[in-house]
Amino acid sequence: MATISLDPRFNLQVGKNQHQHGGVVEEIDGLIRVYMDGHVERPSIVPIVPCTMSLERGVTANDVVIDKCTSLWARIYVPSCFGKLPFLVYFHGGGFCVGSAAWSCYNEFLSNLASKANCVIISVNYRLAPENRLPAAYEDGFNTLMWVKQQALNGSTEHRWWLRHCNLTSMFLAGDSAGANIAYNVATRLGSSGTSDFTILRPLYLKGTILIQPFFGGEARTWSEKYTNQPANSALSLLVSDTYWHLSLPIGSNRDNPWCNPLANGMAKLRDFRLPNIMVCVSETDILKDRNLEFCTALTNAGKRVETVMYKGVGHSFQILHNSQLSQPRTQEMMSHIKAFINE
């Protein structure tokens, strides 16, 4: 896949839309523009593709509606296989503000992952900010799990095409960037007081959580946030990160909101969570590297089982953007690590 670049046609509409909707109040070049009256534009920087497009050989995919009221849907990938497989509930990245389960880069990556790791993947198309600020994405994640549970309990014939391949006792929450943040926050909700041992999920069993370059922040800057030099084609800069948080957190919150900064309340809160095994994938040249490593250390000190994997020479979202010469081999490494983790 080619490196994603800005479609210059988007800029032709700026003058007209400023007249219609007032001035631009927030913008991430090429990805999102928010106007004074609340109107939001997201240019088609990444193609939206049907579920049948460019699938890995042997993989079947279909889109399913989870909640018509909130327009929540998912794309499900099933590799050709025999027997029951682990299944991943996956959340895409995009700073909570952009992205789609139908983006071509996720369709390619997750189709490939389903084939290479031999697992069923449910890719969730959750609601986006700023129209739907947090915790909307977390609610969509939780509701997706409850929907899967209901299909399993009902013995749904409509969804038998993928459910019959799933090992219900081997479910994983996974995601990259903002999607990893969603996976973590859904897992902590499940493991908080009153739902210990994830009994609310039965007959599903949450076996682990896979966090790829988890999108966290904080008011205090880390060394990598302040000093890591980012190339022009980087997926995440400090300014972009701050804008995403400003658009997605509840109005009036700062970056020490626990949804952004899981360490804001100290170690005591982490110890209270009953969490399954966690794998954290960190990129060496990502501005989030130090924050991700601090997070892993805190989880370990809180008694959680954490596997940390560092990918050398690549930056944020390398596995979907292919913006480095090392992207392809590192992506294959990541898929091998995920396969090993879900089959432990």
From TrEMBL:
GO molecular function annotation: hydrolase activity
Name the UniProt record assigns to this protein: Alpha/beta hydrolase fold-3 domain-containing protein
Sequence ranges assigned to domain Alpha/beta hydrolase fold-3 in this UniProt record: 88-319
Catalytic residues in the record: 177
InterPro entries membership: AB_hydrolase_3, AB_hydrolase_fold, Carboxylest/Gibb_receptor, Lipase_GDXG_put_SER_AS
Origin: domain of life: Eukaryota
Entry's family note: Belongs to the 'GDXG' lipolytic enzyme family.
Gene3D superfamilies: alpha/beta hydrolase
